[in-house]
């Protein structure tokens, strides 16, 4: 179980473009596109959430084992932190 809380950083804006969520950093001038489960996670990070909460939310929407879901959520969160899209 993970009690780390993740939240979006304020210098990113997001919009939906043809079914993909596009994230843009105003400060850095960079952008990222995410779809599917990643877009759902980004949407749910509108409010601070723990990894456990995100795993539960994803599993409520998609038929996936807890182990596979957790692995994918952890990898996506690590990528978001690395690219300074969220803070932990």
Strand runs, count: 6
How are the strands ordered across the major sheet? Answer: 5-1-6
User: What's the CATH class label?
Assistant: Mainly Alpha
Count of individual domains? 1
Mean pLDDT: 88
Low-confidence regions: none
- How many alpha or pi helices? 3
CATH topology: Arc Repressor Mutant, subunit A
Backbone structural class: alpha+beta
Please give the alpha-carbon distance between the first and last residues: 15 Å
Radius of gyration (CA) equals 13 Å
What percentage of residues falls in helices of 4 or more residues? Answer: 40-55%
Judging by the overall fold, what is the CATH architecture? Answer: Orthogonal Bundle
Biggest sheet features: 3 strands, antiparallel
Strand content: 25-35%
Label the overall shape. Answer: globular
**Can you write the helix and strand succession as a string?**
EEEEHEHHE
3D architecture notes:
42% of the residues lie in helices and 27% in strands. The protein is α+β, with helices and mostly antiparallel strands. The strands form two sheets. Strands 5-1-6 form a three-stranded antiparallel β-sheet. The longest helix has 17 residues. The chain has a single domain, classed as Arc Repressor Mutant, subunit A, CATH 1.10.10. It has three helices and six strands, in the order ββββαβααβ. The chain is globular, with a radius of gyration of 13 Å.
Provide a quick synopsis of the model.
The chain is built from three helices and six strands; from the N terminus they run ββββαβααβ. It has helices at residues 36-44, 51-61, 66-82; strands spanning 5-8, 12-17, 20-25, 31-34, 49-50, 86-87.
